[in-house]
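Problem 12. The chain below contains 274 residues. Write out its predicted structure in token notation.
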Amino acid sequence: MNANQPQKIFANPKTKIIIAAILAFAAGYIAKSVLSPQQPHSPHTEAEHKQAQQIWTCSMHPQIRQNKPGKCPICFMDLIPVTSGENTKPTQISFSENSLKLMEIQTTPAERKFVDAPIRLVGMIDYDESRIKNITAWTDGRIDRLFVDFTGIRVVKGDHMVSLYSPQLISAQAEFLESLRATQNLSAQASDMIKKSIQDTTQASKEKLLLLGISEEQIEQIAKTGQPSNHITINSPVDGIVIEKQLSEGEYVRTGTVIYTIADLSHLWVKLDA
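Solution.
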């Protein structure tokens, strides 16, 4: 073959077409390989990809989310796989159509409002404990008369309830009357110290009568008559109904002994078992 032979080959038009087609095919193959490189296919790649996307949760605590099986860190139950299409938000839970029908679940939008629902309860009417008063003896003595001799009687504030004989009360009245006489017999020439001493004694004896249950009106009556009263009358402190009578006439009492219990029934309590 001589040196001029290649020139003859390229000069052939058919040969030029064949060479151009080979070069175009090679250029296209190289461009495809560069722009879209193919990864080596492995039968384990797809399975590993699915396993990487699998989420495991607890049937009792759906907020637990792990990418591999194991135990729930809260209740130590076996984790279960989250099926495809299941809502994976920790604040939501999904059920199948059959489960929803069996559970008969009803839903409604959450609202903030006052709840008003009628509820039937069983209970009983009782006394208002803040409106119950006891009538007690303010001094030792003997009950000579009960003006209210059975329960259920309505009384008004100030009504006579008990007439009580008390030697201690007679002694206190005598002291009060003696101090009043000393004040009246006090001469104008007496010193201020003596006057103040007698006045203090009179005031102390009056306060003693008040502590023994004598009212201001009764004290004025004693001072007016100048004679001690053998009995003290205990009056009702409130309006109400006598619900308890603890003692009878002729019985002796000590200071603080309960004689009557009075309840104001204008306001009652209702105790319900809820």
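Discussion. The chain has a mean pLDDT of 81. Students who got a different answer should revisit the alignment rule from Section 12.3.
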